[in-house]
Amino acid sequence: MKKLFSLASVLVLALVLAACGNGGGKDKTITVGASPAPHAEILEKAKPLLEDKGYNLKIKTINDYTTPNKLLNKGELDANFFQHTPYLKTDKKDKGYKIESAGNVHLEPMAVYSKKYKSLKDLPKGATIYVSNNPAEEGRFLKFFVDEGLIKLKKGVKPEDATFKDITENKKDIKFNNKQSAEYLPKIYQNQKADAVIINSNFAIDQKLSPQKDSIVVEKSKDNPYANLIAVKEGHKDDKKIKALMEVLHSKEIKDYINKKYDGAVVPAK
Predict the structure, then answer these.
(1) Pairing label, strands 79-84, 29-34
(2) What's the whole-model pTM score?
């Protein structure tokens, strides 16, 4: 009887240790879905800093704007890194995702590119501007033209909340083509198919375009609501591993890396 009890005790202890080992390993691994540039590049720089804290960072590169939130909501990722607050709010509202922000990391100033004109004021009447099919950024596109005095919006509508339907005055009858995904815009620009193209900085950088040097106008970073964030499932932003991830991404080492590598095309969030 004593031998049976001892054997049972050993088996129970082995199972407990195995469970602890597996749970511990999972808790020490952080799986993040991210856009290739600059998100995945920033995470690669964060890897050794997280290793120093005892965490293994796994990066899954995803080159579109629909998959990361879907995977996060299903629990296949611990976090994702590709979006800003207006996009997250829209995606949650449209698809019912139970995800939230764990904090901002950086801003990618969006820019307008043209191979035909040197400024927005040079655009001809009836000019076509190619933009992405992302409804959460319609106001962001329009702000360039509002700031230049070319377009007016409905009274009381903030640019970040605006849609194309909120345009009340359009002096040059500017047309917005939003039939394509954001990743195709650099190709449209290179093929000279448009009067101008508004490109997200991550896709611009990926195609060796500099928002500061190659664009005709670049978005201002001050008071900008479009900082890119780390998203997690609701109720998990205070998890130890997510807090460790945010500490590293907010560290001086990462901020210095962003400033040096991207030369103003990406700036640390404030």
Answers:
(1) parallel
(2) 0.77
